[in-house]
UniProtKB/TrEMBL annotation:
<dbReference type="Pfam" id="PF18029">
    <property type="entry name" value="Glyoxalase_6"/>
</dbReference>
<feature type="domain" description="VOC">
    <location>
        <begin position="4"/>
        <end position="118"/>
    </location>
</feature>
<protein>
    <submittedName>
        <fullName>VOC family protein</fullName>
    </submittedName>
</protein>
<feature type="domain" description="VOC">
    <location>
        <begin position="125"/>
        <end position="239"/>
    </location>
</feature>
<dbReference type="InterPro" id="IPR041581">
    <property type="entry name" value="Glyoxalase_6"/>
</dbReference>
<dbReference type="InterPro" id="IPR037523">
    <property type="entry name" value="VOC_core"/>
</dbReference>
<dbReference type="InterPro" id="IPR029068">
    <property type="entry name" value="Glyas_Bleomycin-R_OHBP_Dase"/>
</dbReference>
Length: 258
């Protein structure tokens, strides 16, 4: 049995505050869990979670990944933008052209995201969180397709995209040129290996596909930190009794200062 996409993780200066923003914007419920590991859960239990983990590393340049949120109408797009601004987001300029229909915003921690205009055919079958749009090569798109066993739904001009066989959010890579990597990514994938699966065989499989194992930033909870072919960090962890799927309903509160 292979790894599954368990969560998209944000390294955040104030995890609970950022979780409140995304919970309010997406309408996802917070999960029960420790104060320094805040998680929000998707409406579909089969979907990935979003986790917010404490980090004091400053943001340098644009993130290599951002969410694209979809709209059902021009009015719906305006409502999403207004809700984001009310929750603490802001408009930003990343070089978008005036005639482009999407709206570029940043969350309270400076992480970019887009609200896509209505009628986008590529994201028509995805739901509200249409895509996690990544800066990356064709090679890394092929890598993640093999890792997750998600089929390629776009492969043209060195741009790639994958989607779960069950549908939902697409993950896309824009192809070259890829911006140089500066420091650790603020957004990264967390994979989980189901209980009872062969841990060593799975890590060997990831390495055979092009991953690199690194000991930097590894935790004491069984996680292994690895790099994909573009040098992006991702973690792999076993799902055990000590690492259950989180339950819903925990109010969001900032952890105390250490």
């Amino acid at each position: 049995m292979t790894s599954q996409l368990f969560a998209i993780c944000f390294n955040a200066t104030r995890p609970s505050s950022l979780a409140r923003f995304w919970s309010g914007l997406l309408g996802w419920e917070p999960a029960d869990g420790p104060d320094d590991d805040v998680t929000i859960l998707p409406p579909d239990p089969a979907g990935f979670r979003i986790r917010f983990l404490p980090s004091q590393e400053p943001k340098v340049g644009q993130n290599r990944a951002h969410f694209d949120l979809t709209s059902t109408s021009p009015e719906d797009q305006l409502r999403t933008v207004a809700r984001a601004l009310e929750l603490g987001g802001k408009h930003i300029d990343v070089g978008q052209l005036p005639e482009e229909g999407h709206v570029v915003l940043a969350d309270p921690d400076g992480n970019e995201f887009c609200v896509i205009e209505a009628g986008n055919e590529f994201l028509a079958d995805t739901g509200f969180v249409g895509a996690l749009a990544c800066d990356g090569t064709q090679e890394v798109g092929y890598f993640w397709s093999e890792v997750l066993r998600w089929p390629l739904v776009w492969d043209q001009d060195e741009e790639t995209a994958i989607q779960s066989p069950n549908g939902g959010t697409k993950i896309t890579w824009g192809g070259p040129p890829v911006a140089p990597k500066t420091g650790r990514n603020r957004l990264y994938f967390e994979l989980a290996l189901p209980a009872g699966a062969d841990w060593e065989a799975e890590t060997d499989r990831l390495i055979s596909l092009g991953a690199t194992r690194t000991d930097i930033g590894g935790g004491g909870d069984g996680r292994v930190l690895m790099l994909d072919p573009d040098g992006n960090e991702f973690s792999v962890r076993p799902l055990t009794r000590q690492c259950p799927a989180p339950e819903r309903g925990m109010p969001l509160a900032d952890p105390p200062s250490m």
